[in-house]
């Protein structure tokens, strides 16, 4: 259950998280193979959500981070990144304790690469500012999942790539426009 992908995101970025989840699902990855708190019903009523999140993160192989302005403002998101990095460090020092982990930092404009490097971690990231970049993310995620041994149909994955990239760009643009609007008093 949720052994492949964990999607870390701010609840304010739920629309983009759902676009990614729908792409994963449409491409043939079973819903139980990825965890996203904004998709489906991953945590039951009455469960300790923090314990459930740690449990999912302990089993996951890929962490997708939707790094937006809201991500930086969310204590929970920053805690998830810190936990994942600590888990990675522990696993490197104690082989066999946890499965290997692959980070996929996705930078959502207007956040910059520099802000990610200065305030979060120094990892190669993908800026979700064009359909080409969204397709790059999709292709690299497929490659990582394939290398890790996930059973994902490449043809099905590729068939959904252009629709995903279109929806991804549209959602990022909506987020950008919404962030520019002044809040009502």
Description:
It is a single chain. This protein is an alpha/beta fold. The chain has eight helices and five strands, in the order βαβαβααβαβααα. It has helices at 14-26, 49-59, 69-73, 75-93, 113-119, 131-148, 154-159, 161-180; strands at residues 5-8, 34-35, 62-67, 102-107, 126-127. A five-stranded parallel sheet has the order 2-1-3-4-5, with helices on both faces. The mean pLDDT is 90.
How many E-type strands?
5
Structural class determined from secondary elements: alpha/beta
Q: Beta-strand percentage?
A: 5-15%
The strand order across the widest sheet is 2-1-3-4-5
Unreliable parts: none
List SSEs in N-to-C order. Answer: EHEHEHHEHEHHH
Major β-sheet profile? 5 strands, parallel
| Distance linking N and C termini | 44 Å
Radius of gyration: 16 Å
How is the secondary structure organized here?
Blueprint (H helix, E strand, L loop, with lengths): L4 E4 L5 H13 L7 E2 L13 H11 L2 E6 L1 H5 L1 H19 L8 E6 L5 H7 L6 E2 L3 H18 L5 H6 L1 H20 L5
Parallel strand pairs: 1-2, 1-3, 3-4, 4-5
């Amino acid at each position: 259950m949720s052994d492949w992908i964990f999607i870390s995101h701010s609840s304010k970025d739920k629309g983009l998280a759902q676009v990614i989840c729908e792409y994963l699902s449409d491409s043939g990855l079973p819903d139980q193979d990825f965890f996203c708190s904004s998709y489906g019903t991953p945590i039951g009523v009455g469960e300790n959500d923090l314990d459930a999140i740690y449990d999912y993160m302990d089993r996951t192989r890929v962490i997708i981070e939707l790094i937006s302005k809201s991500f930086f403002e969310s204590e929970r998101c920053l805690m998830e990144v810190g936990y994942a990095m600590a888990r990675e460090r522990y696993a490197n020092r104690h082989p066999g304790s946890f499965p290997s982990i692959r980070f996929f930092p996705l930078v959502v404009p207007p956040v910059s690469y520099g802000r990610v490097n200065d305030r979060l971690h120094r990892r190669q990231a993908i800026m979700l500012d064009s359909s080409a970049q969204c397709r790059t993310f999709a292709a690299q995620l497929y490659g990582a999942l394939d290398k890790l041994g996930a059973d994902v149909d490449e043809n099905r994955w590729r068939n959904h790539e252009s629709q995903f990239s279109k929806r991804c760009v549209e959602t990022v643009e909506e987020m950008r426009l919404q962030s520019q609007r002044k809040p009502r008093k």
